[in-house]
Amino acid sequence: MTESLTVRDNRTGQEYDVPIADGAIKAADLGKIKTGDDAPGLAVYDPGFVNTASCRSSVTYIDGDKGILEYRGYPIEQLAEGSTFLEVAYLLIHGSLPSKVEYEQWVHDITYHTFVHENVKGFMEGFRYDAHPMGMLMASVGALSTFYPEAGMIQDADNRQMQIIRMIAKMPTLGAWSFRHAQGKPFVYPDNDLSYTANFLSMLFKMSESKYEADERLVRALDTLFILHADHEQNCSTNAVRSVGSSQVDPYSAVAAGIGALYGPLHGGANEAVLRMLRRIGSKENIPDFIKGVKDGNERLMGFGHRVYKNYDPRAKIIKKACDDVFEVTGVNPLLEIALELEKIALEDEYFVKRKLYPNVDFYSGLIYEAFQFPPEMFTVLFAIGRTPGWLAQWLELTQDKEQRIARPKQLYMGDRGLDFTPREQRWA
Ligand code: ACO
Predict the structure, then answer these.
(1) Is 362 a known active-site residue?
(2) Ligand 1 mean position to 296 CA, how many Å?
(3) What is the pLDDT averaged over residues 343-358?
(4) How many CB atoms lie under 10 A from the CB of residue 417?
(5) Among 194, 296, 302, 396, which is 20 to 30 Å from 217 by CA?
(6) With 80 as the cut, is the pLDDT of residue 403 above it?
């Protein structure tokens, strides 16, 4: 039996049967509801896309009530425990886990595309001494489209794969160089003997030593953080990538748009706000007063609550565990004690329980990043490196989806109509 929705338009008394498929109705079907042949069709008003599905996707599944996150059907907990970031990237892009041969080829290809054209180095050096690394990353990724003009041939499957490999490979190089620039330190070239994440740490922190090999526990923790950030279905930045990509522009330009979206404080910046909050609380004794202020509506408990998760964010659980490994190497971040106590008190408090407010991915990630000695401006750069395979998997899906068209939302026009223009000389006379 086909499912449908019966809609009665009380303006005309007419009834319409609107088919339901996959739990959704087509907005275009509502467009057939009109008060007359020449009248505009009924539109759906949904600022912020709170209840609008923009695509069919097989990349990432989230059940926010149950706290489930899966990439291509695999639970995030299992991937974080047993996989690597590059294997997860393969899974997201190709849709299934790689064979041994496929994995080795993939790792090889990505490893050997980590270098960037020397001119990229030249223009990155031209940024102001205090340039925000995220702005530098966004600009450099966009600029890559000029180095690979063939990237615009997005109908060509081999060409698409080439650009995907390049972008995943070069992201750590561009991210690390953005970091080094702000510190006034020389750029470090990739070391292709190292793993993806170990090489990133080398490009970030190497000084005069001939080889920089980070502690394996730190490499693993950062690799896990990349896995946790690799995709999160149709969020603000992914929607930006898809929207810009729907114009059939090259993938560098589309991903640069995603980086721009992630740059914003409402998307990528909450972990920095968590650190500021923990620092302000200062010690465990001040927590009850702080919680009272939150409950009185004076401020929010940063790192708590999520638009989708109404349960413990599964990524927060994994990050909490990773904290132990990192702090074993770096020494405990004193803010951890406050964070743990804050979480304990909040999870038992009726205000948070009733509103289903649990720690989100950002509650503990800032603490780990700080232990690595990343300045807060780098947090979103790390997020962007992790999210790149997800953006690209979503972009790839878009390019092959016959139902997709150029993104072009409607508006509800509220302005004036039909005014007569008076030339300046008359208006100002
Ligand atoms: N602290 C205290 N109260 C909160 C919090 C919080 N962190 N989050 C939500 N609430 C309360 C609201 O005041 C509201 O209460 P009310 O019903 O009495 O008015 C209720 O919970 C519902 O909140 P909304 O704002 O409607 O929830 P929404 O889904 O729009 O917001 C958001 C989600 C923005 C994440 C919110 O929970 C928040 O501001 N959290 C803190 C910031 C943060 O950690 N952001 C990172 C999100 S993860 C990411 O982007 C990668």
Answers:
(1) yes
(2) 14
(3) 95
(4) 5
(5) 302
(6) yes
Answer yes or no: is the C-beta of 361 below 6 A from any ligand 1 atom. yes
Separation between Cα atoms, residue 182 and residue 177, nearest integer Å: 9
Query: Which residues are paired to 19 by β-bridges?
Result: 4
CB 33 within 8 A of CB 371: no
Read off the pLDDT band of 2 (50, 70, 90): confident
pLDDT, position 5: 97
**Environment class of 140 (CB within 10 Å of its CB; exposed 0-12, middle 13-18, buried 19+):** buried
Counting residues of the chain whose pLDDT is more than 70, the rounded percentage is 100
How many residues does this entry show for the chain? 429
Mutational test site, ligand 1, from 263, 299, 304, max ligand atoms within 8 Å of CB: 304
pLDDT at 4: 97
Task: State which amino acid sits at residue 49.
Answer: F
Element holding 369 (H helix, E strand): helix 362-371
Q: Are 188 and 203 in contact (CB under 8 A)?
A: yes
CB distance 310 to ligand 1 below 6 Å: no
What spacing in Å lies between the alpha carbon of 50 and ligand 1's midpoint?
15
Pocket test of ligand 1: the residue of 69, 236, 238, 307 to mutate, having most ligand atoms within 8 Å of its CB, is 307
pLDDT band at residue 286 using 50, 70 and 90 as cut-offs: very high
Contact 70, 419 (CB under 8 A): no
360 Cα: distance to centroid of ligand 1 (angstroms): 10
3-class secondary-structure state, position 136: helix
Nearest to 242 by CA among 17, 19, 394: 394
